[in-house]
Design brief:
single chain, alpha+beta, 3-stranded antiparallel β-sheet, 46% helix, globular
C-alpha cells in the first residue's frame, strides 16, 4: 500500500484475458508500506504466466494506491522488490526466525515514521544486541532505516494520515524513533526536538496531561525520556519518567484490567494485548535504564511490573499466544501483542521482576509465533493499526494482517530468548 487508507478496500483478482476470478485481496484500513496478500490456487500458475492478472477494486469509495514501477539495476533491489506487486510460490513452509531476521534487516520492513517504525528499529536493536551473528546486518539496516527519515537538519516524514510533517514531532507516539537514533547519532538535532516536544506538552507535571493517557506513552515517551535523561545526567528527568509510569498505572490499571486509553473520564480497550505490550515494555525498558532501586518510584514501578507479569501469564492461550483482548477467547489470537508481551516478560525476568514461569511463557510464545511467519519471513496474525474510523469492531472481529511493526515486537522476544539460551 502506498498511501494511508481510512476505509475497508477489496481487490478482485482475475485472469487478464479470460476474466476468470482467481482470488480477492482484503486490505482494510491499510497504512503506507503495508503488505497484503491473496491466496491463489496452484492450478492457476500456468494461466497467470500466460495471461497475467487483472486487479479491479470492488470495495471502498476512494482509489487504492499501491507501489508499482521498475526495479533499479543496482542497490536495494531485494528490499524494493518486496514493495512491488509480486507472486510468491512457497518452497518452504512455514517460515523461520532466520528468515524473519533477514526480512526485518532490509528496507522492505520500513514502516511509517512513529510507533510503527519505532517497533521495527527496536526489533533491529535487540537483534544486534542479542545475536552477534546478525549484528552486522541489523546495524546496516538500522542505518538505512534512519536515513529514510532523518536529515542533517532534523526529520522529513509524513504523519499517520500521509501529510508532510517536517522537522517536528506530530505526536507523543512518534518519539519511539529516538532510542535508535540516539544510539547511532547521539548529537543529532532531532533528539533536542524530541526533548523540547515532551516539555512543550507538559500539563501539570504530566507529559500529555492526566486527561488523556494511553498505554503507548509508557513505551513511546517514558522509555526514550529515561534513555536521553540518563545520557544527559538529568536525574530530575529520569525521576519524571518513573513518575509518569506510576501516573499511567493509576489511570489505566483497575483490578484485573489494564485499559489501553483513558480520555475525558472514559476508559477503553480493556486488556487489549497490544496495549498490554506497550504497558509492560514501557515499565521494563525504563527500569532497564534506571534500575529497580533508583528511588522509591523505581521500586514501586518494579512491583507493578512484577504484579502485571504474574497476572498476564495465566491468560496465555494453549498455543502460546495471547488473545486480541487477553481475557476474551472469542477475540482470537493476536501476534503483535504476543511478541511485545513475551519480550517484556523476558526483560522483567532479567530485572528480577518476574518468576521463572514468565520465561516458560515467553518460550511458548516465541514457538507459537513462528507458526505465523511466512516463507519469506513476514509476520501475519496482527490486528490492524487501531484507527478511529475502524473503531473497536475491527479489533474484535478477527481480521488479521501482515505488519513489520508486529514483527519488530516479535523479533525482540525471539532475540532475547535466543540470547538467553
Amino acid at each position: 500500500i502506498a498511501l494511508d487508507q481510512r476505509e475497508a478496500k477489496r481487490l478482485e483478482l482475475s485472469l487478464a484475458e479470460s476474466g476468470e476470478i482467481v482470488g480477492e485481496l482484503d486490505s482494510r484500513f491499510g497504512y503506507a508500506g503495508q503488505c497484503f496478500e491473496a491466496s491463489i490456487a496452484a492450478g492457476h500458475r500456468e494461466a497467470i504466466a500466460a495471461q497475467g492478472l487483472r486487479l479491479r477494486q470492488v470495495g471502498g469509495s476512494l482509489p487504492l494506491w499501491f507501489f508499482s514501477g521498475q526495479l533499479p539495476e543496482d542497490g536495494e533491489r531485494e528490499g524494493r522488490a518486496r514493495l512491488l506487486p509480486h507472486l510468491m510460490v512457497p518452497r518452504e513452509a512455514p517460515g523461520s526466525w532466520p528468515q524473519a531476521y533477514r526480512y526485518l534487516a532490509s528496507t522492505a520492513s520500513a514502516e511509517p515514521f512513529g510507533w510503527l517504525e519505532g517497533c521495527v528499529m527496536e526489533g533491529l536493536t535487540q537483534l544486534s544486541r542479542s545475536l552477534p551473528e546478525w549484528r552486522g546486518e541489523a546495524e546496516a539496516a538500522l542505518r538505512e532505516h534512519l536515513a529514510l527519515y532523518f536529515t542533517d537538519r532534523g526529520m522529513v516524514y509524513e504523519n499517520p494520515r500521509g501529510r508532510p510533517v517536517d522537522h517536528r514531532f506530530a505526536s507523543m507516539e512518534a518519539t519511539l524513533m529516538l532510542p535508535a537514533l540516539f544510539r547511532h547519532a547521539p548529537d543529532h538535532p532531532a533528539l533536542e526536538m524530541g526533548w523540547r516536544h515532551w516539555w512543550d506538552h507538559d500539563v501539570d507535571g504530566v507529559i500529555g496531561g492526566l486527561g488523556y493517557q494511553k498505554c503507548e506513552v509508557c513505551y513511546t515517551v517514558n522509555y526514550p525520556l529515561a534513555l536521553l535523561a540518563s545520557h544527559r545526567g538529568d536525574e530530575a528527568a529520569i525521576a519524571r519518567a518513573l513518575q509518569q509510569l506510576l501516573h499511567q498505572k493509576r489511570i489505566l490499571h483497575h483490578g484485573d484490567t489494564i485499559y489501553q486509553a483513558h480520555y475525558q473520564g472514559v476508559s477503553s480497550f480493556p486488556n487489549w494485548s497490544r496495549g498490554l505490550a506497550w504497558y509492560l515494555l514501557g515499565f521494563a525498558r525504563v527500569l532497564e535504564i534506571t534500575g529497580c532501586h533508583f528511588n522509591a518510584d523505581a521500586r514501586a514501578a518494579a512491583e507493578e511490573l512484577e504484579r502485571a507479569c504474574r497476572w498476564i501469564v495465566p491468560l496465555q492461550r494453549p498455543d502460546g499466544l495471547w488473545n486480541c483482548y487477553a481475557h476474551l477467547p472469542e477475540t482470537g489470537a493476536e501476534t503483535s501483542g504476543t511478541g511485545g508481551i513475551a519480550a517484556a516478560l523476558l526483560l522483567a525476568h532479567r530485572l528480577g521482576c518476574a518468576p521463572d514461569e514468565a520465561v516458560e511463557a515467553a518460550t511458548r510464545a516465541v514457538q507459537g509465533l513462528e507458526r505465523y511467519l511466512s516463507p519469506d519471513g513476514m509476520l501475519h496474525g496482527v490486528c490492524q493499526s487501531n484507527k478511529p474510523e475502524a473503531g473497536d469492531a475491527l479489533q474484535r472481529e478477527g481480521f488479521r494482517c501482515y505488519s513489520a511493526m508486529g514483527l519488530g515486537l516479535a523479533v525482540q522476544a525471539a532475540a532475547l530468548l535466543a540470547e538467553g539460551n
